[in-house]
Task: inverse folding
């Protein structure tokens, strides 16, 4: 049951990404091109999604999850260099190619080789981050 | 105006999907975290939902394009070096910074997390600066 729910949520999420234009790198780079020919469309994607979660999460978090014992939420609240550095590097990568993780995975179904290489590189980057963090001992 | 309607609708659907995952499974729909945990923990019992979610993430767009007869977007115009560099940075950065557009942006802001709001502003700014540098200052792309 949990797996089917996860599948359905993933389906909806992926359909939303495709519908919104997030799986189109040209569109995403146009959105990030604030000082060029700015394409504001994707502002409405983030805006629409956050409008929903700002209201719905508040309601949902008052109770308990339907199919789990408790909510599984991040607990940290401090702004540390790792958060800032990670977010900064992620933004640079986003600006270099135009994919963030979700749309990159969704776009795999378009069967474009460059997209596949992006996803493999992304996984390598994640693995690398694990090694670096371990070495830094934090 | 109608050109804003489709992205807005897409955003609402994304928000709905994140709400569903939180309400039903008590989980945050953060794609970078789900992806890495799925890969790292393999097919352990309590990890399987992640693989199902990821399967949906791929099948969703397929269903959308088929059912609405919408053509696929154009393939990325940038070449291999950009895919490798972009991919490495996105993977490295999202794991280091514990989240991406979905986990920090859509879900984190939704639950009023200051960490997520700061992370989201940070990656938006560096994304915009990167495109400015690559396109306009240096004229590389």
Result:
């Amino acid at each position: 049951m949990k797996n089917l729910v996860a599948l359905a949520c993933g389906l909806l999420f992926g359909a939303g990404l495709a519908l919104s234009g997030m799986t189109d790198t040209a569109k995403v780079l146009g959105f990030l091109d604030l000082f060029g020919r700015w394409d504001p469309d994707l502002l409405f994607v983030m805006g629409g999604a956050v409008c929903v979660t700002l209201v719905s999460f508040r309601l949902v978090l008052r109770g308990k999850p339907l199919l789990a014992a408790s909510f599984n939420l991040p607990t940290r609240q401090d702004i540390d260099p790792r958060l800032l550095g990670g977010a900064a590097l992620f933004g640079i990568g986003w600006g270099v190619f135009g994919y963030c993780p979700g749309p990159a995975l969704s776009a795999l179904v378009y069967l474009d080789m460059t997209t596949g290489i992006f996803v493999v590189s992304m996984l390598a980057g994640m693995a690398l981050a694990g090694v670096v963090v371990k070495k830094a001992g934090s | 105006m109608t050109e804003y309607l489709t992205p807005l609708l897409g955003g609402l659907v994304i928000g709905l999907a994140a709400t569903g995952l939180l309400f039903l499974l008590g989980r945050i729909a953060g794609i970078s975290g789900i992806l890495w945990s799925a890969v790292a923990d393999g097919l352990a019992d309590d990890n399987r939902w992640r693989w199902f979610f990821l399967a949906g993430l791929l099948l969703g767009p397929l269903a959308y394009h088929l059912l609405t007869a919408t053509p696929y977007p154009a393939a990325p115009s940038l070449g291999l070096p950009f895919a490798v560099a972009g991919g490495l940075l996105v993977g490295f950065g999202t794991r280091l910074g514990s989240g991406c557009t979905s986990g920090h942006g859509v879900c984190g802001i939704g639950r009023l997390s200051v960490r997520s709001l700061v992370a989201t502003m940070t990656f938006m700014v560096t994304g915009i600066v990167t495109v400015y540098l690559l396109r306009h200052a240096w004229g590389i792309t």
